[in-house]
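RECORD TYPE: inverse folding
INPUT: structure tokens
STRUCTURE:
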């Protein structure tokens, strides 16, 4: 199940990459500080997802089997939130 967590976090990385790209294009045209804040926020979330993927790959044997479903739920909730955020951003 740790592999599923890692895959979901890789999807999150893709969504965050799309958001950063979109906000960077917006910043080029508007030069709005708010857009820079969104880029910074997404970058921090990307660091979180990178660390999560790394930990699932290298330290999955240290996670309790009872903990994994909760981590999976957190990753799925993050993925849903990022997908909605990207959808709203692209509209």
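DESIGNED SEQUENCE:
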């Amino acid at each position: 199940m740790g592999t599923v967590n890692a895959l979901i976090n890789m999807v999150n990385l893709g969504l965050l990459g799309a958001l950063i790209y979109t906000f960077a294009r917006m910043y080029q045209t508007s030069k709005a500080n708010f857009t820079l804040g969104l880029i910074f926020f997404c970058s921090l979330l990307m660091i979180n997802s990178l660390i999560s993927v790394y930990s699932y790959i290298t330290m999955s044997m240290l996670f309790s089997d009872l903990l994994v479903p909760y981590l999976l739920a957190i990753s799925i909730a993050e993925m849903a939130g990022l997908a909605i955020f990207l959808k709203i951003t692209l509209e």
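NOTES: The first helix runs from residue 2 to 30.
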